[in-house]
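Fold description:
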Amino acid sequence: MQKRGIVVAILVTALIIGLTTQESLAQGGTLRERVLKRLDTDGDGTLSRSERSAAREAITFDRAEEMTWSVGELKREAIVYPPKQKTVTGSPVVFGFHGHGGSARNASRSFGFERLWPEALVVYMQGIPTPGRLTDPEGKRNGWQHDVGEQGDRDLKFFDAVLATLREKYDIDEHRVYATGHSNGGGFTYLLWATRPDVFAAFAPSAATSRRLQELTPKPALHIAGRNDNLVLFSWQERAIAAVKKTNGCSVNGSKWAEDCTEFSSESGTPFIAYIHDGTHKYPADASPLIVRFFKEHAGGDE
């Protein structure tokens, strides 16, 4: 397995550089200059954030395991990043759920938890065609069930199957299992909170709400909402935020936790953080580091 990983890493690096031995000999300049030229897709002489991200993604993806499950009559898939570094107590687990019309690979690109938290076991499950409540009513695009009982609970059953495999295959820390997701993925995060609360230590839904808010049990949570969200309206998310604060028994007044983030304490040890930004429905670029920081602050065994 280790030798295969080294070989794959070399091949991935070769793809990034795009150089054959003959081409290397034919071109002038140092290796660094040739690598820069290949990665610099816009030719401005420097690597932009997106160009650096593409290079990191290609290398990081070497760690990924593309796994499949049979859930009922459905074939389901997920991308799993084993922990790069092991911990004494077992690996924390982070589930990241893409939005409607997204994919597991896109979730990896957007969230990047495997790069931000190398000690964690990171899982990006793949949704399948699902009718959307706000868009795509015909269900042509991939997504997640919105409520209990929809589509025979196929996605909840898929989650259960994935978790069972992780428990069997990896040394995981049962007190540090987390879920986050954006849009439809955030809604599924709320659904997991309502139906599988004992599995998780904390949640971080983004640009989402839920019909199951009254059924939530107290858990540490971080909710990300854009004031100018024109899909999952900010007013809807405000109601979700208020419901979670009530469930968690949070203080009326909060304190600054990070830029645009207000933390509301809880005597039961289940604080709530509202990350309110001025953006739209788009996932904020700085959200993932904040989510990782939040998850690291909360382990189920400590509550």
The chain has ten helices and twelve strands. The chain has two domains: 2-56, 65-302. The radius of gyration is 21 Å. The mean pLDDT is 88.
